Recover the amino acids of this structure.
């Protein structure tokens, strides 16, 4: 019933991605077409929600978790300025219907690692 998206395939290791971080709840990888020096995508591992437009009371914690993981990653790398974006629906620019958070920063992730 559920359509498998490209992000399902990345999560299952069927398609390679430049992974930056992973834990029980989230996978973070580099966007294949970066719009900023650092452009990461955060996807939930445990729960599949196609889009913000599909959120319910049962799944409203998922975007909050993604935002918190982004904040933690920024803190770890000393990135103090960034943008967090959800594209919602075709007319909102959403191409992949697997809920994901865009993390964009003019600061380089690599430069912040030590
Ligand atoms: P959306 O517009 O759906 O919010 O964003 C989807 C993002 O996924 C786009 O920025 C696009 O560049 C990225 N993307 C699409 N396919 C792949 C892929 O196979 N690998 C990676 N790393 N990113 C992808």
């Amino acid at each position: 019933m559920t359509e498998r998206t490209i992000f399902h395939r990345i999560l299952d290791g069927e398609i390679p991605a430049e992974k930056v971080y992973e834990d029980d709840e989230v996978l973070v990888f580099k966007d294949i077409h970066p719009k900023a020096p650092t452009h990461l995508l955060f996807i939930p591992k445990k729960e599949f929600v196609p889009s913000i437009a599909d959120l319910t009371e049962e799944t409203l914690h998922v975007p909050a978790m993604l935002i918190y993981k982004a904040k933690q990653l920024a803190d770890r790398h000393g990135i103090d300025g960034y943008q967090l974006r959800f594209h919602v629906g075709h007319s909102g620019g959403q191409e992949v219907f697997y809920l994901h958070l865009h993390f964009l920063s003019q600061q380089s992730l690599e430069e912040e690692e030590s």
Summary: The pocket of guanosine-5'-monophosphate is lined by residues 6, 15, 17, 29-33, 41, 87, 93-96 (CB under 6 Å). The CA atoms of residues 11 and 87 lie 20 Å apart.
